[in-house]
Amino acid sequence: MPDLEQGKQLKLEVLHERMENLVELLDSLDPEKTGVEDIDRLIEMLDDLENQCKQYRQQAD
Predict the structure, then answer these.
(1) DSSP letter assigned to residue 38
(2) Which domain of life is it from (predicted)?
(3) Domain boundaries, the chain
C-alpha cells in the first residue's frame, strides 16, 4: 500500500507543479501583447489540467 500512496502523492505534486507553472505564465503575460493564439493555448492548458484532475478523481474512487 505505501507504493500506492506514494503514487497518489506524486500525481498530486505533478498536478500542483503544472498549476503553479500556469499561474506564473498568467502573471507574466502582457495584456497589450497577448494574442488570440496565446489565449487558445491557455485554454488548452486549463482543459488538460481539468481532465487530469477528473482522471485522478476517478482513479481514487
Answers:
(1) H
(2) Bacteria
(3) 2-60
